[in-house]
Design goal:
Length: 232
């Protein structure tokens, strides 16, 4: 994979056009990538699907969170799965924009991925009230480290099946991701410093957004979920 990267992605699209770090077009390309990633992140599929499919607003139910878990509790597996897939895909696209447009030496795909997560949590289209970024984190991991994505999937699934706590699985994955991504990098080794920093910030961001869940977990008051029971 490292040979593939150096053969095709070393300079990124902007580098292949002849621009280098310090050039104005290089800077503008970076700014544009960040803006696009934020706007993509701001597309909230929980709100879209709850309105289009159920003629309702998911934020008026359960935790009030516009994310896959609240969709699962409120409308069932199908709506939750569609929401999760949409949120994963927007993170995938945001990370790929950073990977292909800008040089990988800057770890820019991590930056655009982080910005997408920020847009998901604080969407400009919906009064800056969005989800908790777990599905987006899954999409990020899928792009930056596919083998790690498989490992994290099984970790999350094991915790969910063992405890029925989505939040606990999400928090543990947020902690494990930046550590394991540095231990078993996928594209190049070692992970660029900005990639390490961004991965840590992504993990901390998800944990911060789950701060209330952590409090409820410690008190034994956190709600459990069942994949086989649909709530009306």
């Amino acid at each position: 994979m490292e040979a593939f990267y150096y053969a095709y992605l070393e300079k990124g699209l902007i580098g292949k056009l002849g621009y280098e770090l310090g050039d104005i077009p290089f800077f503008l390309a970076g700014v544009l990538c960040v803006i696009v990633a934020y706007l993509l992140g701001s597309i909230n599929f929980a709100i879209i699907f709850s309105e289009k499919i159920h003629h309702d607003d998911v934020r008026s139910h359960g935790s009030g969170n516009a994310g896959s878990t609240n969709m699962l509790r409120t409308y069932g597996v199908k709506s939750a799965a569609l929401t999760f897939l949409g949120d994963v895909l927007k993170a995938v696209v945001s990370a790929l924009i950073g990977l292909f447009v800008m040089p990988y030496q800057t770890g820019f795909m991590y930056v655009t991925a982080l910005v997408c997560m920020i847009g998901h949590a604080f969407p400009i289209y919906y009064g800056f009230k969005g989800g908790k970024g777990v599905a987006c984190l899954a999409g990020v991991i899928l792009v930056v480290n596919p083998p790690l994505f498989v490992l994290m999937f099984f970790v999350f699934a094991f915790i969910l099946l063992l405890t029925n706590y989505v939040s606990l699985g999400s928090i543990i994955c947020a902690v494990v991701f930046p550590i394991m991504n540095n231990i078993i990098p996928f594209y190049v080794s070692p992970v660029p410093p900005v990639g390490i920093i961004a991965a840590v910030l992504m993990g901390l961001f998800v944990i911060f957004l789950h701060r209330k869940n952590i409090g409820r977990l410690l008190k034994g008051e956190e709600s459990k979920v069942s994949l086989f029971k649909k709530k009306k």
